């Protein structure tokens, strides 16, 4: 574990962290989509994609009067393929900071760690998907130099009609 500040530490995750990663994914989706209650499908994503080639980092918090630490932020990386150029790039599968630890620079630290990993892989760009309703994240990503490349557009209908 490497210290980030007095109480925060960056720690490399392991492929055995599936349950912890799934919990963080569920927290993300529950926060963004409180009207939906079933996110069991996320376990398939974790099961299918978490591997030694898709690294994971945690930020842990330990208060002064405690010997235990708590995981408060997470970054899960992988790769994607630029559909225009065909080049591989680093892709952020998940970045999440628990609400009571936000605005401490933790997401920025994680993105910088992800960018470092991307550069070590020899890739020249980093990408992510962000939900339009997540305005705080959009603001941060714009500030860090991300810009839209495409828009995912969906049309829904009721199959019973």
Keywords:
29% helix, 161 residues, 6-stranded mixed sheet, 24% strand
DSSP helix count? 4
Radius of gyration: 17 Å
Describe the strand arrangement of the main beta sheet, using strand numbers. 1-2-3-4-5-6
Structural class: alpha+beta
Large-scale geometry: globular
Largest beta-sheet details = 6 strands, mixed
User: Uncertain spans, ≥5 residues at pLDDT below 50?
Assistant: none
Number of strands: 6
Distance between the termini: 55 Å
Helix content: 25-40%
**DSSP strand content:** 15-25%
Mean pLDDT: 91
Reading the helices and strands in chain order gives EEHHEEEHEH
Structural write-up:
The protein is an alpha+beta fold and 161 residues long. The protein contains four helices and six strands. It has a six-stranded mixed sheet, with helices on both faces. Strand 5, helix 3 and strand 6 form a beta-alpha-beta unit. Helix 1 packs across helix 2. It is globular and about 60 Å long.
Short summary:
The protein is an alpha+beta fold and about 160 residues long. Helix content is about 30%, strand content about 25%. It has four helices and six strands; from the N terminus they run E-E-H-H-E-E-E-H-E-H.
Would you spell out the secondary-structure blueprint of this structure?
Blueprint: E1 2-3, E2 8-12, H1 18-32, H2 42-49, E3 56-61, E4 70-81, E5 88-97, H3 106-120, E6 126-128, H4 135-143
Parallel strand pairs: 5-6
Antiparallel strand pairs: 1-2, 2-3, 3-4, 4-5
Helix pairs in contact: 1-2
């Amino acid at each position: 574990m490497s210290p980030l500040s007095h109480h925060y530490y960056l720690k490399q995750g392991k492929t055995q962290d599936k349950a912890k990663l799934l919990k963080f994914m569920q927290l993300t989706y529950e926060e963004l989509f409180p009207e939906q209650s079933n996110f069991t499908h996320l376990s398939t994503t974790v099961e299918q994609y978490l591997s030694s080639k898709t690294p994971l980092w945690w930020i842990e918090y330990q208060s002064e009067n405690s010997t235990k630490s708590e995981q408060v932020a997470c970054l899960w990386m992988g790769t994607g393929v630029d559909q225009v150029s065909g080049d591989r790039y680093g892709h952020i599968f998940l970045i999440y900071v628990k609400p009571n630890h936000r605005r401490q620079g933790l997401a920025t630290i994680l993105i910088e760690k992800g960018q470092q990993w991307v550069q070590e892989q020899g890739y020249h760009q980093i990408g992510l998907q962000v939900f339009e309703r997540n305005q705080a994240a959009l603001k941060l990503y714009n500030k860090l130099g991300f810009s839209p490349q495409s828009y995912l557009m969906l049309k829904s209908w009721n199959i019973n009609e």
